[in-house]
């Protein structure tokens, strides 16, 4: 897709989002907010999966770190949203650095296994430490306070204003990730995906750059988690569960792995499909499993043909 | 800290360990031969438990019939999965294989909820093995002793199969060099299906035997056990049956001691051990060095 | 002919040993490499040439011995740090970045060696100095016209040339070329050899070839090292090697007229 088309499509998408924000009903605004948050999660994930070729099954843990980081901060220190987001993202980055350190030195299978194991350990922690995290109830009663900037305040406690707040972060995310993709660092990540053995011979420390990609995607996951908590005003321990890790994976597979708008398209399909299935059955995850199967078995050439480059194994 | 406590904690650790070994053995066998990490192995374990439960409910409450028949259904599922799904993705890149087994986790975990409901099911007691035995003055469940005995039997059986039979030799050949084995006439695809089915059976059997052990069947039991199996694989070395046996023993004993003496932090012990192994011997005790 | 320098050797290999089970792939190898001297390493299949290159470049750990490069002991140094010090290699089997453009294939190591790759938010398009150097390199190896082509779409010979180009882009002081002309047609072969010769003459990069083609070896090399069963059995100028009885017996024997 040449750049001019990309700009056009992006502009169109932006216009559509603004339109929904200004004129949409409550449910549309809420649903689109969820789409945007999932897009942020998926865009960040794409840096690691699509660009660097690392398949992690535990990134939900970083989403949860952001979610609970903001939640705990809001409940125990101050409900200031921007500070809360900062704390959430910082927590996610820290956790991603620690977990990533153990995982990135390993090859694909071990890496996948370890990310899953560490991710579920985080889930266990959240589930079991009731006193801190609220256990299976999660943290409740989180205030989404308006942001006061001296003379005036941004009333993000209102759904519409919050919508544009999230849109701002989505735009910021897209900008940052665009820059990362087209930076020298981004070229190294693509090189790792294309031939991870050769990059060492080009003078690159494979471990360090993989960790970089891992942490960056973890940070964006944390941002998504923090925004998610602000949206729902509570946290959900299942946001750390591996089934939640399936979210960005499915989104990037549906939307196209190395395309830029892919995660947003994929998120829209994901959220809308989920809502539809939810009308009929609680077990929407079952159908998403089937969907994943169909994609892998059926469209191998098509959408998934662009999957993760030609990694040798 | 009396001798009695220590012995009982050890016994508890042994039974937990052997129990994890039953599950991990299947996972390890499948990885060792097919080089596939079956994320859905925990789901097979869970399906084994639920199928056993249903089988014995339908067949008049006979536990042994349940153990016999339940896992067979899961085996069939495993066989079909390997034949019609997994086989098609062997030649594709690794992410596809991982995603495929992951998709099956999503499918099976939710299938269980759909078929058997989202709540927990109580398990029946096993005649002859219910109740307890008094060891050093304290009661220890008889069924757990049974598990402690079954573990090494399975280990022996697998060892015998792989090391002592001609089929085992073929398995070893195909796992170290697929093309070579095919070149000398081994029907590799069929063998892979057979090994996958055996591995599935081991996992499902673990689940079936778990029914009286855990006492309660829940849709979350699959994910809990797969994490333990992964940790065992990291410690013992992915693909090594010896390592899985040893790793399972270590994890079992560690969690038993942890639960007894440092209750709140016992889960940390497992993580710390895994992190330590990853730092000092990343390939596990018996694994091959990666790269 | 390359310059002879009186400085310390660029690379010193001391008592290097490596065994695979019962096979001794490297047996007390002692070699010095002077800057500016184009060396070829030859030997029958299984002589240990690849093993040696792998140990020197860092992909294979040594059993015992030392490797000293530019005065630093690099025996246990990770691959990427050796590259940073100036020790590079190209591969016998094409080992490129398939879906990146030719330009990006070469740009990656060029950026890395200049420490530009930590730049997360800057635009690649602004790295003009590096881009210029990449264009120079592509000119030198004759791939300038293919700069925007995806690497996997190149002909096999062009891919081999690119392979060497990627190694060159890291501005090595010492470069190992593992059978650089294997599978090339005569035109491509001449092209790559000219590049190697020119490179050697310019003096910035010392080349060490692993080769089977004797014509190339004897026309290009200042020095020839002969390996057999992991041992060095010959080390000298092309004339000396051609006259070396042991070498002829083991390796060139079949070509000698009775």
Report what the structure shows.
The complex is a heterotrimer of chains A (313), B (291) and C (258). With 313 residues, chain A is mainly α. Chain A has one domain (37-306). Chain A contains 13 helices and two strands. Chain A is globular. Chain B has one domain: ABC transporter involved in vitamin B12 uptake, BtuC. The relative contact order of chain B is 0.20. In chain B, strand 2 (132-135) and strand 3 form a beta hairpin. Helices cover 75% and strands 4% of the residues of chain B. Chain B has eleven helices and four strands. In chain B, the strands form two sheets. Chain B has a two-stranded antiparallel ribbon. A two-stranded antiparallel ribbon of chain B has the order 2-3. Chain C is of the alpha/beta class and 258 residues long. Chain C has a six-stranded mixed sheet, sandwiched between helices. Chain C starts with 10 loop residues before the first strand and ends in a 6-residue tail after the last helix. In chain C, 44% of the residues are buried. The model of chain C has no long low-confidence stretch (mean pLDDT 87). The interface between A and B is large, with 41 and 42 residues.
Topology of this protein?
The complex is a heterotrimer of chains A (313), B (291) and C (258).
Chain A: H1 3-23, H2 26-51, H3 60-76, H4 81-103, H5 108-128, H6 130-133, E1 147-149, E2 152-154, H7 159-181, H8 184-194, H9 196-201, H10 206-232, H11 242-255, H12 262-280, H13 284-298
Antiparallel strand pairs in A: 1-2
Helix pairs in contact in A: 1-7, 2-7, 2-8, 2-10, 2-11, 2-12, 3-4, 3-10, 4-5, 4-10, 8-10, 11-12, 11-13
Chain B: H1 3-34, H2 41-58, H3 63-89, H4 94-116, E1 121-122, E2 132-135, E3 138-141, H5 142-164, H6 166-176, H7 178-183, H8 188-214, E4 216-217, H9 221-236, H10 241-261, H11 266-280
Antiparallel strand pairs in B: 1-4, 2-3
Chain C: E1 11-20, E2 23-33, E3 39-42, H1 49-57, E4 64-69, E5 72-73, H2 79-85, E6 87-90, H3 102-113, H4 128-141, H5 156-168, E7 174-178, H6 186-202, E8 206-210, H7 214-220, E9 223-228, E10 231-236, H8 238-243, H9 245-252
Parallel strand pairs in C: 3-8, 3-9, 6-7, 7-8
Antiparallel strand pairs in C: 1-2, 1-4, 4-5, 9-10
């Amino acid at each position: 897709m040449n750049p001019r088309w990309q700009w056009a499509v992006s502009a169109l998408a932006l216009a559509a989002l603004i339109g929904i924000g200004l004129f949409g009903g409550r449910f549309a605004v809420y649903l689109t907010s969820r789409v945007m948050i999932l897009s942020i999660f998926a865009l960040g994930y794409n840096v690691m999966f699509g660009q660097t070729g690392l398949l992690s099954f535990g990134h939900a843990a970083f989403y949860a770190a952001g979610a609970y980081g903001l939640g705990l901060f809001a409940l125990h220190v101050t409900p200031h949203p921007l500070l809360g987001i900062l704390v959430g993202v910082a927590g996610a980055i820290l956790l991603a650095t620690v977990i990533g350190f153990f995982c990135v030195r390993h090859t694909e299978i071990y890496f996948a296994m370890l990310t899953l194991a560490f991710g579920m350990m985080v889930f266990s922690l959240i589930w079991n430490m009731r006193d801190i995290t609220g256990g299976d109830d999660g943290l409740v009663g989180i205030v989404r306070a308006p942001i006061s900037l001296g003379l005036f305040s941004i009333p993000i406690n209102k759904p519409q204003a919050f919508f544009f707040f999230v849109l701002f972060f989505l735009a910021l995310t897209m900008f940052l990730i665009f820059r990362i993709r087209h930076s020298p660092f981004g070229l190294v990540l693509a090189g790792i995906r294309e031939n991870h053995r050769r990059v060492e011979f080009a003078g690159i420390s494979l471990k360090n750059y993989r960790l970089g990609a891992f942490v960056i995607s973890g940070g964006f996951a944390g941002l998504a988690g923090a925004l998610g908590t602000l949206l729902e005003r509570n946290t959900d321990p299942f946001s750390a569960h591996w089934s939640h890790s399936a979210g960005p994976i499915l989104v990037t597979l549906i939307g196209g792995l190395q395309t830029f708008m892919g995660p947003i398209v994929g998120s829209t399909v994901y959220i809308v499909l989920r809502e539809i299935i939810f009308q009929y059955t609680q077990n929407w995850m079952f159908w998403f499993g089937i969907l994943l199967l169909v994609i892998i078995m059926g469209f191998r050439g098509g959408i998934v043909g662009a999957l993760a480059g030609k990694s040798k194994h | 800290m009396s001798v009695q406590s220590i012995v009982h904690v050890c016994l508890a650790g042994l039974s937990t360990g052997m129990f994890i070994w039953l599950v991990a053995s299947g996972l390890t066998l499948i990885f060792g031969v097919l080089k596939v990490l079956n994320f859905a192995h925990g789901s097979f374990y869970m399906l084994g438990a639920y199928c056993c439960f249903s089988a014995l409910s339908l067949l008049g409450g006979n536990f042994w019939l349940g153990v016999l028949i339940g896992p067979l259904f899961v085996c069939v599922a495993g066989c079909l999965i390997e034949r019609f799904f997994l086989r098609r993705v062997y030649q594709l890149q690794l992410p596809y294989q991982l995603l495929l087994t992951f998709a099956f986790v999503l499918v099976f975990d939710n299938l269980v909820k759909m078929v058997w409901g989202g709540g927990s099911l109580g398990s029946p007691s096993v005649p002859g093995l219910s109740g307890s035995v008094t060891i050093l003055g304290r009661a220890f469940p008889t069924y757990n002793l049974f598990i402690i005995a079954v573990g090494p039997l399975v280990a022996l059986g697998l060892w015998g199969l792989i090391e002592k039979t001609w089929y085992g030799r073929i398995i070893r050949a195909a796992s170290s060099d697929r093309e070579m084995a095919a070149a000398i006439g081994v029907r590799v695809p069929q063998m892979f299906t057979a090994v996958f089915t055996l591995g599935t059976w081991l996992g499902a059997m673990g689940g079936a035997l778990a029914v009286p052990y855990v006492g309660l069947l829940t849709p979350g039991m699959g994910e809990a056990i797969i994490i333990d199996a992964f940790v065992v694989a990291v410690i013992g070395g992915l693909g090594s049956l010896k390592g899985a046996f040893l790793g399972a023993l270590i994890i079992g004993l560690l969690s038993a001691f942890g639960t007894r003496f440092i209750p709140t932090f016992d889960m940390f012990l497992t993580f710390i051990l895994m992190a330590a192994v990853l730092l000092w011997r990343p390939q596990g005790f018996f694994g091959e060095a990666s790269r | 002919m390359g310059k002879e320098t009186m400085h310390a050797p660029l690379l010193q290999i001391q008592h290097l040993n490596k065994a695979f089970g019962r096979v001794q792939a490297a047996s007390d190898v002692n070699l010095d490499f002077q800057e500016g001297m184009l060396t070829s390493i030859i030997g029958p299949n299984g002589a240990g040439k690849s093993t040696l290159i792998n140990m020197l470049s860092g992909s294979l750990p040594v059993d015992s011995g030392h490797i000293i490069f530019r005065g630093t002991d690099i025996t246990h140094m990770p691959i990427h740090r050796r590259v940073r010090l100036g020790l590079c290699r190209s591969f016998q089997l094409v080992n490129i970045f398939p879906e990146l453009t030719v330009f990006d294939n070469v740009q990656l190591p060029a950026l890395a060696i200049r420490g530009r790759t930590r730049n997360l938010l800057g635009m690649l398009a602004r790295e003009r100095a590096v881009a210029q150097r990449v264009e120079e390199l592509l000119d030198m190896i004759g791939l300038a016209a293919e700069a925007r082509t995806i690497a996997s779409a190149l002909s096999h010979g062009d891919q081999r040339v690119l392979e060497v180009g990627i190694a060159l882009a890291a501005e090595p002081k010492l470069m190992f070329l593992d059978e650089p002309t294997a599978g090339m047609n005569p035109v491509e072969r001449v092209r790559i050899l000219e590049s190697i010769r020119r490179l050697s003459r310019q003096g910035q990069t010392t080349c060490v070839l692993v080769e089977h083609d004797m014509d190339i070896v004897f026309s290009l090399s200042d020095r020839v090292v002969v390996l057999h069963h992991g041992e060095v059995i010959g080390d000298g100028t092309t004339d000396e090697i051609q006259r070396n009885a042991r070498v002829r017996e083991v390796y060139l024997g079949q070509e000698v007229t009775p």
